[in-house]
Amino acid sequence: MMMKVEDVVLDVNMEELVAKILLNKQPEEYFDTIKKLTIFQQVQLIESLPAEIRLNIWHCIDPLNWWSLIGYLQAETSKNLIRSLPVEEHSKLQKVAIAAEVLLLADKLPKSLIDAIMLDQDEKSSLEFQQALTYSDDQVGRFAHRNILRVRKGISIASVIDRLKRKDFISAVFMVDSERNLLGYIPIAALFNNDENDIVDDVARPVQSVEHDSRVSVIATTRQFEEGMDYLPVVENGKVTAAISISVILHEVQASLTNNTISEAPVQDEDLFGPVNVAMRGRGLWLCINLATAFLASWVIGFFEGAIQQVVALAILMPVVASMGGIAGSQTLAVTVRGLALKRITTANIKLLYRKEMKIALLNGVLIGAIIAMVVAYWFDSVQLGLIILCAIVVNSFAAAASGTYIPFVLEKMNVDPAVASAVVLTTVTDVIGFTIFLGLGTIIFL
Amino acid sequence: MMMKVEDVVLDVNMEELVAKILLNKQPEEYFDTIKKLTIFQQVQLIESLPAEIRLNIWHCIDPLNWWSLIGYLQAETSKNLIRSLPVEEHSKLQKVAIAAEVLLLADKLPKSLIDAIMLDQDEKSSLEFQQALTYSDDQVGRFAHRNILRVRKGISIASVIDRLKRKDFISAVFMVDSERNLLGYIPIAALFNNDENDIVDDVARPVQSVEHDSRVSVIATTRQFEEGMDYLPVVENGKVTAAISISVILHEVQASLTNNTISEAPVQDEDLFGPVNVAMRGRGLWLCINLATAFLASWVIGFFEGAIQQVVALAILMPVVASMGGIAGSQTLAVTVRGLALKRITTANIKLLYRKEMKIALLNGVLIGAIIAMVVAYWFDSVQLGLIILCAIVVNSFAAAASGTYIPFVLEKMNVDPAVASAVVLTTVTDVIGFTIFLGLGTIIFL
């Protein structure tokens, strides 16, 4: 539902409003303020408040905006909200449903609600609805609009304008050949700035199409967009059949942006003030995976018990060895994961990257290793210990560079998301290699 | 420079092309293929190739596209490329300069080149150019266009269309009152779908404006955009004076997305195949900061030398204590940093988040701590050791939750970017507290 200009008040201090509502917990008092917020401010408000107050906010909001609101809420938050709605609200929700908006969030809705909404649609939209639902919520087909205008090469701008006027709302205009193959896109604003007798070819611009089954998240990271381009053409077997809005793509990028991309602690789309047990389960899994790798490191250390007992300094310095390997590896990882996401790194040039990373590892390893060696030699009054840690740092830097380059590359080849899985594998490698070299050399030299 | 539809070939296998060029290093052979790539494919190609081949690619590209190309290249990569251009190329570049495109990359250009380009502009664009340059490349003012159309409330759609036709290219149309205060924006495509005798009010939509000095990166993370909205109004003292394209914002989000957001190893915008010494310096700094915190952890461990010598198991288990604290803390951190970036967390509700995080810490700490305790008690045949590590894990979980919540919050209040600085502070806290409790209890019980 579109809000009219006069329905909205823009200058509201959101922080103050949240504080006030938390203080006296009677959102009804602010009914008018809340109702007149923009949809995005209402989203912000709901996501800033604990789950038990959210339903009260919901009731202050114009039912005609409920669907857009659900659409813009973070996935987890909207799931929690819908789950908390009383059953009779479901039928109210159903009455105000707009197919296009429901599509954006089909994965968050109970199946019964979707079926009921589909029954309410006329035949044409119901068909489009069902078609869209065959795609996942990371596929272009889910969000593609069919309300596009296809015009042929060589026709006049005047006739394009004429056709635009005779149609219902059109999102995008594309130029095609007689086979409906894509030739270019026509920025609607440009139609006004050329002579109406000119042909559309003069305003057509080259554009790369996407397929119905293309992944939105991939487009979002890999494609760049020219200024003024607001829809991408969607094709089936080369023929233009629909368009997808840049705002859908922007929304996707924003969502990924605020998720932690490369991390040992990925936290996917968690609801800030949602139920504790859901958050706990998601995080517990990662804690356990990391626990396993930490125990692996402990197990490695266990082999060198004798050396540690003789030279406690070895135990004291373990964090330095682990930290340097882990950080250097994460740096390489960050570069590789980005390069892979942007499709800059492929089989064609991965070796070049590997060589560059090894050079950096050598330089930083020797330089920082030398600083560490000096500090250690002075602290524990032992040149031997300094040389041992220098050696461990340099070797571990190489291990870090190699794993940082190849772990995400191999994971991607195996169809595992390198951003999620790389960090934990990498830390395991650098811990195990770092401790083995450091404590191993310690055993050889001091025992 | 805009490319025409017929200049471009879209179906090129980029990976193959990169492999071929790397194999025989004669890009001239592929001159025609490279020239006919879209600008974004040319960008991909340059970023996928080592620095020494890039200049050859550059020479294959139509000079009219040079500026857009520079604009779309990653910051570091384009700096390196421009630095490597022979001096005589600078004057060639200058000849094909388009003010609007130069603006996007003023920070990457030598001052002399910018001055020369400004002299070439007519008075009006030169003035706009200078004005835009007073803003940083993260401010709206740098990218704002003045070619907007302001229409008054109540006028007919026909007269809007008429005014659009009489103007040079217009990016966006806004509805204003008699004082030029913003009332709403008019989607250009909607002008075709209403009766020409209707008033613009019928198609106007509410929109929040931005200021010339607003930060693009903040808009990029915090604002959501409706479908079909392609420009945001830019205001000065409430009066609409310009517009900024959503594509600029999308570009900003994409750039941040591919940077590692929350990390102990931030790698800013590094050129994949740029000079090793530049990459090394950037990373070396972070390695040194982390080195300092690792030594701090070592120093803490040093206090418990006696206990470690008696019970080597304490040293063996240190990675487990450190890992659990670090990971749990990073999870909280991910949630907090995202909430802060989206302006969901403020002084009004930070305590609520803190309480939720403490609950999760208690539950996960006790549960996973118990698993660890059982493994440890069995492994080292010591119930005491199991209880010690249980205690350390639980206390450290609380420390992790508290720091994960408040470190980024405090950093933001101090105007330090929490995404960059939080992780290293957090790990220090969890390492120090974890080791102190674990080894401290070990000392009390075993010595």
UniProtKB/TrEMBL annotation, chains A, B:
Residue span, SLC41A/MgtE integral membrane domain: 318-441
Residues that span the membrane, as ranges: 284-304, 316-340, 361-380, 386-411, 423-446
Subcellular location: Membrane
Entry keyword annotation includes Ribosomal protein: no
GO molecular function terms listed in the Swiss-Prot or TrEMBL record: monoatomic cation transmembrane transporter activity
Keyword annotations of the record: Magnesium, Membrane, Transmembrane, Transmembrane helix, Transport
InterPro entries in alphabetical order: CBS_dom_sf, Mg_transptr_MgtE_intracell_dom, SLC41_membr_dom, SLC41_membr_dom_sf
Recorded GO CC terms: membrane
Residues in coiled coil: none
Family indicated by similarity: Belongs to the SLC41A transporter family.
Protein's UniProt name: Mg/Co/Ni transporter MgtE
